[in-house]
Amino acid sequence: xxxxxxxxxxxxxxxxxxxxxxxxxxQPQVRASTRxxxxxxxxxxxxxxxxxxxxxxxxxxxxxxxxTSDLEGRFSIPILMGAEDAFxxxxxxxxxxxxxxxxxxxxxxxxxxxxxxxxxxxxVGARPDARPSLGRDLPVPxxxxxxxxxxxxxxxxxxxxxxxGRLAVDHLIRHGRRRIAHITGDATYGAAQDRATGALAxxxxxxxxxxxxxxxxxxxxxxxxxxxxxxxLERDPGVDAVFAGSDEIARGVLDVLHQEGLxxxxxxxxxxxxxxxxxAANARPPLSTIDMNLEQLGxxxxxxxxxxxxxxxxxxxxxxxxxxxxxxxxxxxxxxxETVPCRLVTRESTG
Amino acid sequence: xxxxxxxxxxxxxxxxxxxxxxxxxxQPQVRASTRxxxxxxxxxxxxxxxxxxxxxxxxxxxxxxxxTSDLEGRFSIPILMGAEDAFxxxxxxxxxxxxxxxxxxxxxxxxxxxxxxxxxxxxVGARPDARPSLGRDLPVPxxxxxxxxxxxxxxxxxxxxxxxGRLAVDHLIRHGRRRIAHITGDATYGAAQDRATGALAxxxxxxxxxxxxxxxxxxxxxxxxxxxxxxxLERDPGVDAVFAGSDEIARGVLDVLHQEGLxxxxxxxxxxxxxxxxxAANARPPLSTIDMNLEQLGxxxxxxxxxxxxxxxxxxxxxxxxxxxxxxxxxxxxxxxETVPCRLVTRESTG
DNA sequence: TTGTATGCGTTATCAG
DNA sequence: CTGATAACGCATACAA
Lengths: 351, 351
What we know:
homodimer, alpha/beta, 434 Repressor (Amino-terminal Domain), Rossmann fold, 3 domains, 12 helices, 12 strands, 42% helix, elongated, DNA-binding
């Protein structure tokens, strides 16, 4: 038996295809008893409408594309999950495409997605710095998440890294720490700079200097966390807290502090960044850290996208509207960069 | 301007829609010069065919559904990536759906996917044990990856955990270790049992006993790795190698060995399982481990699915075929469980 | 070699 | 309230 179509349902219910369609779509202009008959027939046949045909007519497919450069990575997944549950599973499905950081592949995927008539796109970059825009003249709304677009005319949703840095240091200060060091990753990452900026700002408010007299930039690895900690202890043995730019780095910090016999958190408190559960929750002791709220970022992206899609449709339908706004074809997306606040996660490494 | 359609292309090229279609689809029955004209017109307009319309006709959408219960997890992602690149980015796109372990949500997703007329399905479970089948009468081929289906009539692709356990112990033996312990996760996981079985088999071949006189089952956590190692060292201080059932556990093992001042790998060698890069590569020392070849598993799943889809189509087309086989509607999938071998990854923790 | 006509499964616009 | 009928964008058997 081939797939069951609306015709089969109509036939079983003894009505025309048109009536069956109206009945199932909740159109008011159909007698209650007829509607029941149709619905029962549909259930009996386990009918599910062919969304391809629907999309062809309504110009909406109920699909969005998620274009990422960081699949193996830790960032796109939470964003994807947030987006997925904001959309609602039976409303919208998401195409996941990984460009693996390759511009050519990205173009291919983009083409494929547009060809599939997705209603919108979410672009997730591999690192939190600005990335090239997909262009201004796309037929669907686009939202850049995690990595902002280089084009200020696009809408980007990013983590508030400055706020995150401030949050971490604030937490340490509230726990009575005064000699706070900052060990972080690659200095070419905007996120590293921003977190440091936030940390320094909070220290300055308290009239404090950075322990070790510098921000220790390096790489986003456990190994760097270890070697930086050794250097730090040599330069400033009295340090009583370390703010690590990532949980990986924090693990390296913990490792060396243990080697040196320094109690955590009594002697030195440690806080990380990312709340990467496998690293943070299993650390010894479990690691306090800053969570970027990526699921929320994903949800927000989905909501914005949804609004824009609805806007596109409405504006397309209301040709008689009096609106003189210069909204682009991609819908009602307010351009600019929105920022999502971080959240402190307290575990034992800060007491 | 709305999306450009084949009509626009035909018009610009000065031919009929039918001719334009044939030209673009590489049908032989069209003059070369005409074809060129059409192709140029298509490029000029940046035409891309509406796959919805195509799918409606050809009964193939060029999409597959990936139904997972483990999105945040480490397993579905490599599988997804393998599948993605086996399909080829411009041929097939994949819908990713996370059921989050909820049967209701899974049903919803399944319905949505079928309604979108995916050509096939890959189901990835949350743990390597058998999971309920989606059923036998689905209109598309289904492949179960990582978690096998409970129904032997389905096709499942799983990791060779027995072989993996054997591989790990074999590696230790080849490096001259004789007093080998095994610390692993939850005993209710088939994978834990299988890996232990493989390990024991290889030990038996060598006439060796397990150090500590037992398999240390517990949980898949670093904390368990630590406490089990302490118990182990107490019971059998002479142990010269540990095979950990996961990289997380291995990290815990390493931690305690360091605390006890036991050199790795000189005094005790350690090997993990999963090759979870963030844990294994950054360990001190970097951790040898067993890789489950999940990308390959994903590729294989994609290939099998592809073959089945082609089979479905061919068998549907050749109504005059002489085949008397009782192949199901879901295509030519050979039922049963296929096994993908593991791979040894050597780093410094085993010398 | 090219064009015409038909249909894929739905929704939407009309008459009845 | 219900039922023909025309799209939606494309592929294909058939006619020219």
